[in-house]
Amino acid sequence: MAEENYTLNDPRRRRRFHLQMNGSTMKIYGCAAMLFYTISRAVIQNGLIGVDSYGPGELSAAMEADPDLMMLSGWGSVFQLIGGLAVPVFAFLLVEGFVHTASFKRYLLTMLAFGAVSEVPYDLAMSGRAWDIGSQNVLFTYALCLIMLYGLRLTQGKKGAVYRLGQGCIVVATVLWSMLLQGAFGLATVLLTAIYYLLYEKRGTAVLLGCAVSILYVTAPLSGYAIWNYDGQRGKLAQRYKYVFYALYPAHLLLLWLLARAIS
Question: What angle, 0 to 180 degrees and rounded to 10, lies between the N-to-C axes of helices 138-155 and 104-127?
């Protein structure tokens, strides 16, 4: 018997799995994972531990002498592992948004606008400085991926080695730009976005390759199960409160930075 090869968003797959994930639940899941990551970086590392106050090798020595400091460092590592779950989820949702958006220009400008608003809160939360060119927030990475997706769409459906080579060049160029701009989660996000888009109609292959790339963040392949069970529906919360989800990013960064300052 031939294997059933449902597309990634085929609702017939719901009969085979009990878990159902729509756009709203996926976003909530991703935001919850992202919260753990920011707590680890902003509150535990910068606030409670104060990693910037230690010189090379001093932090390791301090943890050996202080069990409480060692425990805090352990919790910070656990929270970052949980935060890694968000990477493939948001890459997948970015592709869904691109495929179904009524206006690519508005989608890109929205991402850039919220990226600009989020940059100072991001720098404060991650480094304690209002301006840090060493890393850019993840919304700029998503904006870069949207530009990549637009380029890939121009070659979508066209056969021939030239077009495949062109798609590969677009992906490689985006990876290089993400490294140059030092966007958060750049390499994995670019590769995952390309995989989920180019293999949009091949559910099994997309999830499998996505899990392979996600191993960069150790626990992130676990999110492949949620992506596998995405039912193709946007969900009421994601539809009604689209900009609230955007605003949550800079808001939670700023609030956790303030908390870190209060307890540092």
Answer: 150
If we measure between CA atoms, which residue out of 85, 146, 87, 83 comes closest to residue 114? 146
In the chain, the largest separation of any two C-alpha atoms, in whole Å, equals: 64
Match 């989020």 to its residue by tokens: 118
Nearest to 228, CA basis, from 99, 81, 88, 100: 88
Quote the CA–CA distance of 142 and 145 in Å, as a whole number: 5
Contacts of 34 (CB under 8 A, 6+ apart): 83, 86, 90, 249, 252
DSSP 49: I
Cα gap 184→87, rounded to integer Å: 10
Strand partners, 230: 21
Contact predicate 233/14, CB 8 Å: no
If one counts every other C-beta atom within 10 angstroms of the C-beta of residue 32, the result is 13
Reading the block at residue 161, the tokens are 């080695």
Q: How confident is the model at residue 18 (pLDDT cuts 50, 70, 90)?
A: low
User: Residue ranges of the domains in the chain?
Assistant: 11-263
Please return the burial class of 230, using the count of CB atoms within 10 Å of its CB with bins 0-12, 13-18 and 19+.
Answer: buried
What's the predicted TM-score (pTM) here? 0.86
The HSE-up count of residue 163 (CA atoms within 13 Å, CB side) is 11
Residues 41 and 252: beta-carbon distance below 8 Å = no
Which of 131, 135, 254, 143 is CA-nearest to residue 184? Answer: 135
Instruction: Identify the top-confidence range among 46-55, 105-114, 239-248.
Output: 105-114
Rounded Cα distance, 206 and 227, in Å: 10
Contact (Cβ atoms closer than 8 angstroms) between residue 225 and residue 243? no
Query: What is the number of other CB atoms lying within 10 angstroms of the CB of residue 15?
Result: 7
